[in-house]
C-alpha cells in the first residue's frame, strides 16, 4: 500500500468503485469526490500498489492557523479491516500536528475506532441535508 498527500494529479479513473458505502442513493460522484480531495486543506490517499487505484482517503478542512475539521474517512468495503483507516487517520493527524484543535463528528458506533488513534469523545451538533449528499 502506498500513501500520498498528492491528490491534484488524480483523475476519476484513479478512484476505485465502492466509496461512500452505506450512504444510500445520494452520494458524491467520482467527479465530486475529486473536487473534495482537491479542495481540501489536506488530503491523504491510500493507493493499491497492484492496481494503482485509490482505495481509501481522509481529508481535512482548516483555517490553517488554529483549527481543522476532518469531514471524511473512507475505505472501500473490500479493503476494510486491514489497518488502512487507522494509517490514514494517523497520517492526517501528523499533517495537522501544529494546530490547536482537530475535530470530527462520527456515529457513536465509530467512536471506539477514533479512541484507538488517540482522539477523545466530545459532544457536537450537526445539520445534515441528506438531499444534498451527492454534492453541490
Automatic annotation (TrEMBL):
CDD domains in the record: NAT_SF
Keyword set, alphabetical order: Acyltransferase, Transferase
PROSITE patterns, alphabetized: GNAT (PS51186)
Keyword Transferase: yes
GO terms assigned for molecular function: N-acetyltransferase activity
Domain N-acetyltransferase: 5-136
Pfam families named in the record: Acetyltransf_1 (PF00583)
Coiled-coil blocks: none
InterPro entries registered for this protein in UniProt: Acyl_CoA_acyltransferase (IPR016181), GNAT_dom (IPR000182), NSI-like (IPR045039)
One term under GO cellular component: cytoplasm
Protein's name according to its UniProt entry: GNAT family N-acetyltransferase
Organism: Alteribacter lacisalsi
Amino acid at each position: 500500500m502506498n500513501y500520498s498527500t498528492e491528490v491534484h494529479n488524480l483523475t476519476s479513473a484513479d478512484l476505485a468503485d465502492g466509496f461512500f458505502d452505506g450512504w444510500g442513493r445520494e452520494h458524491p460522484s467520482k467527479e465530486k469526490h475529486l473536487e473534495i480531495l482537491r479542495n481540501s486543506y489536506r488530503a491523504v490517499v491510500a493507493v493499491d500498489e497492484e492496481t494503482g487505484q485509490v482505495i481509501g482517503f481522509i481529508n481535512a478542512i482548516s483555517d490553517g492557523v488554529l483549527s481543522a475539521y476532518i469531514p471524511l474517512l473512507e475505505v472501500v468495503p473490500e479493503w476494510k479491516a486491514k489497518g488502512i483507516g487507522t494509517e490514514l487517520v494517523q497520517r492526517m493527524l501528523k499533517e495537522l500536528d501544529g494546530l490547536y484543535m482537530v475535530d470530527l463528528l462520527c456515529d457513536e458506533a465509530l467512536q471506539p475506532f477514533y479512541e484507538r488513534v488517540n482522539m477523545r469523545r466530545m459532544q457536537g451538533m450537526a445539520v445534515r441535508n441528506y438531499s444534498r449528499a451527492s454534492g453541490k
